[in-house]
Amino acid sequence: MREGASDVQGQIAQLMIYPVKSCAGVAVTEAVLLGTGLQWDRHWMVVDADGLFVSQRECARMALVRPQLEPGALLLHAPGMPVMRVPLAAAGAALRVQVWDDVVQAFDMGDEVARWLQSFLEEPALRLVRFDPAAQRVCSPRWTGGIAASTQFADGYPVLVTTDSAMDELNARLAGQGVPAVDMARFRPNVVLSGLLAHDEDHLGPLEVWDGGAMVAGLQLVKPCARCPIPNIDPATAASHPGVGDALQAYRQDARVKGAVTFGMNAIVTQGAGAILRVGQSVQGYYAFG
What we know:
- The chain is mainly beta.
- It has one domain (8-287): M1 Pyruvate Kinase, Domain 3 (Beta Barrel).
- 12% of the residues lie in helices and 39% in strands.
- The chain contains 4 helices and 21 strands.
- The strands form 5 sheets. The protein has a 7-stranded mixed β-barrel.
- A hairpin with a 6-residue loop joins β7 and β8.
- The longest helix is centred in the middle third of the chain and has 13 residues, at 164-176.
């Protein structure tokens, strides 16, 4: 194995984490790669009175909640609200919560942040929970090819990978329809690659991250990311417009997921848990799909 011996080569152009599932993302220049994804990514989640996760699908105003990480604390910002501080190590009452079909153990973050969320999101009974690090949420072996992998509160896989050229293609199509350009924030990726063709990630399997001539991490792209209406939501205003979804419907249906509209690929971590990913690192990819 050597640098340059691959089907495609590119670079990490952006790294994003989303500390609270379905709230705004945080752009970072580097992040620790864990077996469950980037450190602090989807580590917290908003749930309803039944412990079921709440997302922008039900509450578009979540897009306006801006998490910030500082030493020892998660800070939550929102228009017209005081800053809410949640200790990173907070471990309130243990409870069972549900994210999609999975039920896992989590810790409640307390009444103060619950009242803050209920006030801003204008929904009763909401709570903020933190993933129990002792818990394990297993990724579907159907898509991982039997490779053992787990994640926290992400939709199903540790890392979501996209390309900046895919964003450029979408915006060219939107411009042709008279729809304003959008940015990558709508698609909520963790790793954005540059130097690849638009949607080249659709056809890749193994990805290697290289730094200083050494391979530091390996990812395996395993499942196309099917898209719900969230990309129609403007992350700056929480207003929704169908233009993005309509444009994607015209060219992004994927037979691998029963014709669903897709953008980006879900990935699992195959090597390098504990490594640091950085913007600017080189990435090598190997074709796996036709």
